[in-house]
Amino acid sequence: MPFDHAAAMFHHQADGCAALGSPLSAALLRRAAEDLLAGGPCAEAVAGHEDAPGPDAIALRLLGAVHALVLSGLAPELAAHYPSVGGRFDPAEPDAPWPAFRAAVAAHLPFVRGWLTRPPQTNEVGRANLLFTALAWAQRELSAGTPLPVRLRELGSSAGLNLLADRFRCTSDGFSYGPADSPVVLADAWRGEPPAWLRGAPLQRVTDRRGCDPTPIDPRSADGSLALRAYLWADQLPRVQRLNGALALAAETPAPVEATGAAAFLRGVETAGGTLTVVWHSIMRQYVPADEWRSVEAELTRLATASSPSAPFLHVAFEPRRVGTGHRFLLTARLGAGPRTTLAEAMPHGLPAWTLAPDDPAR
Ligand SMILES: C[S@@+](CC[C@H](N)C(=O)[O-])C[C@H]1O[C@@H](n2cnc3c(N)ncnc32)[C@H](O)[C@@H]1O
What is the distance in A from the centroid of ligand 1 to the CA of 196? Predict the structure, then answer.
């Protein structure tokens, strides 16, 4: 059957959405899988992509396309079920949105098929939680009375929203860090106590911010902000609110993202006296070809070697790492040519984070 493979991929993605807390996406993809096998509008939408390999994430492309319709005001009946635009979804009635979803696909086939040609690309604002944690750690290690101004450089920035991390606030039980009036609140930032160096840490002052990505998204453009919003799952309101807050900040604070890969970008980065130069990246290493990553490591070594107490350099990574039989999402930091330190672990979207026990093998 021509759509057997695609239907299996949709069920697999539905399981992933259910496990990651999006019952709306899971329910829609399960019904869409049935629609593929029955030759319904989802089959017409997916035609030509039915044999695409799993990493192409065709199911997520379809979900993103239809969310874009909703966000653009083109599917008002479905919008009534999408919490991202004020609608209501009851997990006890998971199939309620399906008829409107199917109708929206049928009514807007060229729009949906257009979106199926683009890979989903997100920018997870919650991951800034890890960036501030590492910045506060490094400033304490440098023992500067007042923190040094930060020159922030990001690899794989997507839309560059995490270049605005100093403008976000994070909170958890009895703890907060960041400007009190921020439109971006990273709630439930820590499971248990945050690290000691973060409590009472002075705010960071980023004086210069730049990033790179081979396919940057412009968060100030209508297309760019629609894409970022569309690829979020519509029933995950905290993510939606964080993104909307970060888009508002991006409109007032430039954070340029060069259209280039990590290695080429790093060749132009130098340390500078009186500032902390920071290279940071989150969940991008797996996309970089092995030979390019070797160049990235060589550039990071160059910067570490060139750094000094008066022109320090910090490398911060939030990336999955194999520990034992599984993958864990770990925050690591290396100040100058010092040792690489594992500072924390977090959920893939950066929230919540937690500190590691002294005997944790991930250290
Ligand atoms: C999963 S996204 C993560 C984006 C962002 N760092 C975040 O945490 O939200 C991975 C990003 O890496 C970018 N990327 C892929 N290959 C790259 C390369 N060679 N150099 C730099 N970025 C790359 C992709 O375009 C994409 O925006």
Answer: 31
